[in-house]
Amino acid sequence: MQSEPLLFRAIRYFPVRFILCGFFFAYVFLSSPQLGLFEDHVLVGLFGFFHIPAYIDQNLVVGIQHDTVQFQTPTDTQTLFLIFFPSLAVATSAGLVVRLKILLFGAICFLSFAATEFLIIYLMALLGISSQILFM
Asked: What is the distance between the alpha carbons of residues 41 and 35, in angstroms, rounded to a whole number?
């Protein structure tokens, strides 16, 4: 009886596939500085939709009634979700529909985190709180 090589058996093992995919997506997402800018642009778009002045100047700056408050968005937390869900979708042996559902759930988590962040920043700016200790 001929056994298959150890490499093929390891790749068929789910935790090994998941860890390899996690390393790959971590490398891709952490080496790209565009991820934080994308989140900031989403927040600026949300603020613009509600007619709240906001712009990006190395950090997100929100201004309400002559006061501007500078916020540093927590992209590290977002990155964990953006690494986990694609890694799980690629590493699993489920069908295409289940993989798409996993990716959709990851996108919903990203958007809900951005919406929560929007509400927190808006309330902090509305109340005149200029500390961002909430995000640290």
From this structure: 10
Q: Are 63 and 54 in contact (CB under 8 A)?
A: yes
Amino acid in position 34: Q
Cβ atoms of 127 and 69 closer than 8 Å: no
pLDDT tens string 60-119:
777 755 666 677 777 777 888 888 899 988 888 888 999 999 999 998 988 888 888 888
What's the Rg (C-alpha) of the chain?
Answer: 20
57 forms beta bridges with 59
Residue type, 27: Y
Taken in order 105, 110, 114, 120, the sign of the CA dihedral is: positive
Half-sphere exposure of 18 (CA within 13 A, CB side): 9
Residues linked to residue 21 through DSSP beta bridges, in sequence order: none
Q: What is the pLDDT of residues 22-44, one digit of tens each?
A: 899 888 888 877 777 788 888 88
Q: Which residue has the tokens 């996108």?
A: 107
- Are 91 and 14 in contact, with CB atoms under 8 Å apart? yes
